[in-house]
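dumping this here so i dont lose it
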């Protein structure tokens, strides 16, 4: 799987995905792009965008997945989210 780590996510999270092709927005030199342009570039080159949002004062890790029809959807991660948050805070 090809995973893009957004600039708001600690880049050390890449360690969690050693079995996958990962890059950060900074490594791709996309950190100056607005969200729309970033999504357009990422959609062509990656399967997943790992980013952070804020919900009622809590930090939430989100995955944006692209499907064959090129529409994206936000996926709530359940137990995987808890594992990622624990790993990120441990790094």
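and the seq i came up w/
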């Amino acid at each position: 799987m090809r995973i893009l780590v957004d600039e708001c996510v600690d880049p050390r999270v890449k360690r969690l995905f050693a079995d996958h092709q990962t890059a950060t927005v900074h490594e791709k030199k996309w950190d100056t792009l607005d969200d729309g342009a970033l999504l357009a570039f990422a959609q062509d080159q990656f399967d997943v965008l790992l980013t952070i949002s804020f919900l009622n004062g809590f930090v939430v890790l989100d995955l944006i997945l692209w499907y064959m029809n090129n529409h994206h959807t936000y996926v709530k991660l359940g137990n995987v989210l808890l594992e990622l948050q624990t790993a990120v805070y441990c790094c």
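The CA atoms of residues 43 and 66 lie 7 Å apart.
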